[in-house]
Design goal:
528 residues; alpha/beta; Rossmann fold; 7-stranded mixed beta sheet; 15 helices; 29% helix; globular; CobQ_synth; catalytic activity; Cobyric acid synthase; GATase_3
Length: 528
């Protein structure tokens, strides 16, 4: 039997599609429904490695956790990782298959595909082949699960891209899935967005748009109800719920490019420190920042404050400076030097004040970077704070390593083209036999290619104790903070949002039976 499903679309990017998709997955999983998430095409610098060694968007990995299933490449068959404003690495079924210009990928002349991997697959730039691939993945998921909850991308009313769309109405039409459109009322203009989104779609696409879901509402819902009633009269479609504004959800966001504003703070838990003082962490918001969610586990610790910064003076009172992952290592290095941050980080290291580099940030800390793959800049001098040299390989490393660090078990995942040749320092990451793994330490400077290692609770606490000593802080990590438990609580909150504020009976009918028959066509400019 083929499973049912639903497409969660949005009036805009960041309308709440990822949150709603995860919430529906958790609500269904709690009901005992076998459910899987799906996003045909994702554009994100936050990615994850599945157990079979495939790279997918972190949002889909989070949604799989909400559904209580193991994430696989089937759940995100196409992942675009921007390398500039005009080009992205294309990851197909978990493996990189090339670099492509936006014009080439979205239907211009065959594009400029530049091979960066030996992997083979459907020709990049042939959208028909990609549609076949994503439909095959969705079909396989539907054969294995009772329901598949799809997340769209951007807006389904991006009419310039409709001809080649494989993630919004293109996949809805192929699967005959009903569509619920999510709108962020906190931005304003949600009724115009709902109506305009619907009216810009073709008659065939409109047949699948079942209704709307209001997200991030503050205030008295009764004041909103007249507008919802008017929307039903104008479009013939109902609203399936009004979700309240929820603070501190702490879910994995898709776009690291948005987290570059001065003073941005990430905190999952607001709680006093276990010791006498707080610990302040500054994350350099480098260009093309990837997997900035690595610091979420630090922000989850009571008494730890994490801020994203872009000026050297903002490092002055930080107890730890983090150089995060980046899709543009050489570009990030230039950015650090242009802004004076490179000198500020070097002064910290000379004074014995802690610095941590993760993945691309680890590479920045080395002596030299030899890059003929990502930037094609050749050999570039690094910050020289760790005894390693980095050479970019054509093939990407995708792995789920486990080991020991600071005497504690630790696991993570690796996503990088750079290969580190460590020439000294202390190998603080080791395998079961005590052999060094991918990371090193020199004094107060630490680095590793491992994403997600700070989610290992006992290692995180041991690391923070070391940082507190080096920083001269009377900070003590909380002895019972479990990042995994906190993540589960957050996912349950998403499930609660759906269960308590959405028409779950109506959503279930859509998932099982599809869009209602006879939905009227909405013509542009129809309201008077």
């Amino acid at each position: 039997m083929t499973g049912g499903g639903l497409l969660v679309a949005g009036t805009t990017s960041d309308a709440g599609k990822s949150v709603v998709t995860a919430g529906i997955c958790r609500w269904l999983a709690r009901k005992g429904v076998s459910v899987a998430p799906f996003k045909a095409q994702n554009m994100s610098l936050n990615s994850f490695v599945t157990r079979e060694g495939a790279e997918i968007g972190r949002a889909q990995a989070m949604q799989a956790q909400a559904a209580r299933v193991e994430p696989t490449a089937l759940m995100n068959p196409v992942l675009l990782k921007p390398g500039s404003d005009r080009s992205s690495q294309v990851v197909l079924l978990g493996r990189p298959v090339g670099e492509m210009s936006a014009r080439g990928f979205f239907g211009g002349p065959q594009g400029t595909s530049q091979g960066t991997s030996s992997g083979e697959g459907p020709a990049v730039g042939h959208r028909e082949a990609l549609l076949d691939t994503v439909v095959d993945c969705l079909t396989e998921l539907r054969s294995s699960y009772d329901a598949v909850i799809c997340e769209g991308a951007g807006s389904p009313a991006e009419i310039n891209l409709r001809r080649t769309d494989i993630v919004n109405m293109g996949i809805a039409r192929a699967a005959r899935f009903p569509v619920v459109v999510v709108g962020d009322i906190d931005r304003g203009g949600v009724f115009a967005s709902f109506f305009g989104t619907t009216a810009l779609l073709s008659a065939a696409d409109q047949e699948l748009v079942a209704g709307y879901l209001v997200n991030k509402f503050r205030g008295d819902v009764s004041l909103l109800e007249p507008g919802l009633d008017m929307m039903t009269r104008l479009t013939g479609r109902r609203t399936y719920g009004v979700l309240p504004y929820a603070h501190g959800l702490g879910i994995d966001e898709e776009d690291g490019l948005r987290v570059s504003l001065r003073g941005t703070v990430r905190e999952s838990v607001v709680a006093p420190p276990a010791g006498e003082e707080v610990l302040r962490i500054a994350v350099c918001a480098v260009p093309l920042m990837s997997n900035f969610t690595d610091v979420d586990a630090l922000a989850a610790e009571p008494g730890v404050v994490v801020r994203f910064v872009d000026r050297p003076e903002e490092l002055a009172d930080a107890d730890l400076v983090v150089l995060p992952g980046t899709r543009g290592t050489v570009r990030a290095l230039e950015w650090l030097r242009e802004r004076g941050l490179a000198d500020a980080v070097a002064r910290r290291a000379a004074e014995g004040r802690p610095v941590l580099g993760i993945c691309g940030g680890y590479q920045l800390l080395g002596e030299w970077i030899e890059d003929e793959v990502e930037s094609r800049a050749g050999t570039v001098e690094g910050l020289g704070l760790l005894p390693l040299r980095v050479r970019f390989a054509v093939d990407k490393t995708l792995a789920r390593p486990v080991g020991t660090a600071l005497g504690e078990p630790v696991e993570g995942y690796e996503i990088h083209h750079g290969v580190a040749d460590v020439r000294g320092g202390e190998a603080f990451l080791t395998d079961a036999a005590g052999r060094p793994l991918d990371g090193c330490r020199s004094g107060a400077v630490w680095g590793t290619h491992w994403h997600g290692s700070l989610e290992s609770d006992s290692f995180r606490r041991a690391f923070l104790r070391e940082i507190a000593v080096a920083a001269g802080r009377r900070f003590v990590p909380a002895p019972d903070t479990s990042f995994g438990r906190l993540r589960e609580e957050q996912l349950d909150r998403l499930g609660d949002l759906i269960e308590e504020h959405a028409d779950t009976a109506g959503l279930l009918r859509l998932i099982e039976s599809g869009a209602p028959a006879g939905l009227p066509f909405v013509a542009p400019g129809a309201p008077r």
